[in-house]
Description:
- The chain is mainly β and 301 residues long.
- It is built from one helix and 21 strands.
- The protein has one helix spanning 3-23, and strands spanning 40-44, 50-55, 77-83, 87-95, 102-107, 119-123, 128-134, 137-145, 153-162, 172-173, 177-181, 186-190, 196-201, 213-216, 223-227, 240-245, 251-255, 264-271, 281-282, 287-292, 297-300.
- β19 (281-282) and β20 (287-292) form a beta hairpin.
- It is elongated, with a radius of gyration of 28 Å.
- Residues 210-212, 228-229, 237, 239, 259 line the site of one calcium ion.
Amino acid sequence: MRKDKILNKLVIFAIAALMCLSVGPIAVNAVTGDTCSDPYIVNIPSSLPYSVSHTTNGFNNDYYSTTMGYYDDGLDTIYRLVVASTTQITVTCTPVGTYQYAGIGLFAGCPDSNPTALIYSTASTGPVSFVYTCSPGTYYLMVDNWPSPAYITYTLTITGGIQPGADCTSAIQAVAGINSASKQPIWYKYTPTEDCLLEITSNNLGQSVDTYLYVYDACGGTLVASKDDDNSGYYSYASTVSFNAYAGTDYKIFWDDYWETSAFLFKITEITGCDVGVTSIIHPNVELMVYKNLDSYQYQP
Ligand SMILES: [Ca+2]
Ligand SMILES: [Ca+2]
Ligand SMILES: [Ca+2]
């Protein structure tokens, strides 16, 4: 923005402040969308894509002390985002007309008590936009501007969807063999084709990524196996688990970001020869395990 424009805005702001001091602010009755107590509601992801044409005309300047700077000094509207599943959203506000000085900000709470925006976007002219990954919870989105103009009329769009692998319910389908994970944390799922010893490892591929692995038998289910550091193999801080797995169980594989977030490869192997579903033969002094192969059973000492 040019300095003379900033100067003009400061002059206008000073005149407006003096007018407010002399006659007091003009109160506007609260209406839906004006404040956090009665905001517009957007359910995420069920309401996506969300698109509305709104205005801040007729609304109050309720919030003006946030990290959005001068761009929160105008009349403002508030949207409550109720996020059910981890979702990457793209928020775009397109004001009608040029040089509207629009600003949008996303807050973890109402902007009065939570003035630090999680993310925001401002521009002297044209649309403003940001991308943010929301964890489940409640957020507040504010549409505002740096007056003048006194208000903005705009189109607000929110698009996005559940990020694959962001949580257990959106776990990515893994395959037997090599899988390429873009990061940690990330969720995968795998269903063995038969009862087997199932091995999952990030350690047999000559890579150096510090992983932390958990395996569950369902979302919110029982922890079947977990491993932080193998302390052997290609990389001591990689992780390997092997456990008796059942055909038809959709195992949930969680790679945690406790140590590192880098992309990595991991391998899934169904090892034939497995004691799942086969009763051990117990003797007071000796225990024999009958292992099942593809077509037969065998004795292994
Ligand atoms: Ca308001
Ligand atoms: Ca404001
Ligand atoms: Ca580790």
